[in-house]
Amino acid sequence: MRSTRSSDVLFQEILNWPADKPNVPPKMSQGWFSGLNQAILSPTLSDQTKMVIEVGSWMGKSTRWISDQAPNAIVIAIDTWLGAVELISDEQHRKFLPTLYETFLVNCWDYRTKIFPLRADSITGLRVCKKHGIQPDMIFVDGSHEYRSVLGDMLTILEEFPSSIITGDDYWNAGVRNAVHDALAQFDPKSYTFNSNKRAFCVRPQPTVIELDTSKKKKIAEEAKHDVDVAAEEEAGAIVTYPVPGPHRVSLEDRDTVTPIPLRGKHWA
Ligand SMILES: C[S@@+](CC[C@H](N)C(=O)[O-])C[C@H]1O[C@@H](n2cnc3c(N)ncnc32)[C@H](O)[C@@H]1O
Fold first, then answer.
1. Euclidean distance between the first and final Cα of the chain, in Å?
2. Could you tell me where in the chain the CATH 3.40.50.150 domains are found?
3. What stretch of H or E contains 115?
4. Ligand 1 pocket member 62 (CB < 6 A)
5. How confident is the model over 74-107, as pLDDT tens digits?
6. What global pTM score does this model have?
7. Is the domain covering 5-205 a CATH 3.40.50.150 domain?
8. Nearest 10 degrees: Cα torsion 252, 164, 119, 87
9. Torsion of CA 216, 219, 224, 227, to 10 degrees
10. CA-closest candidate to residue 168, choices 51, 48, 100, 66
11. Which of the two residues, 242 and 30, has the higher pLDDT score?
């Protein structure tokens, strides 16, 4: 874990396991995680992986698999453990909901030094991780499959964690697929790569350097209280650039959502 004082607070005070194992039967095989998911996620995980966030863990089948593939990683599992539209509406899955969280804890009990449940809605959970300095190598998205929710999950991740690999399940589902591409459409296609199979998808950040036009340079210089004389540099023909770690907005009009990178030296590069 890339630890900061803020992330220590997260692990000590928020991501607590109960002292005693809940008294519910394990259901180790319950879940949807399949070979097609594994094919997309495998290349993103190794013994070098330090931090993973999973959005949507259910009973922990995918969470445990991720932990097995990344044996030195912390896996933060974000879930309400309240179900999703299609699960609450389905009698077969609804019956699991009253003890869903306890079943997750029992199923993941042997992983409790490596897997940490964060019981929150997806966007709240992601924002809490961001606030506490968590920098995931990879984020697996498998929470809600409703278009608007997935759009929110994807935009939050792209904005808050631009250097993380994003993977996700249920790419066959039109709501998921449209939300993924509508979110990505807001970002410069040169700043990420995309691949998928029928089941899962993967977005990999591509660090790039962008050039800014004069007015935007001025705005960024002012906001960053940088003492660069943009006009003089322009006159001298200097190219002022701005490095970005991964997906960034196509239009910098929206740059409130781009994480500013501290300026170094005379230029941004
Ligand atoms: C399809 S299941 C996850 C399956 C799991 N990844 C697996 O492969 O075994 C979806 C999970 O997302 C959770 N969920 C749905 N909407 C959510 C939201 N907006 N925020 C957090 N969790 C959510 C549900 O409680 C459920 O446990």
1. 28
2. 5-205
3. strand 115-119
4. yes
5. 999 999 999 999 899 999 999 999 999 999 999 9
6. 0.86
7. yes
8. 90
9. 90
10. 66
11. 30
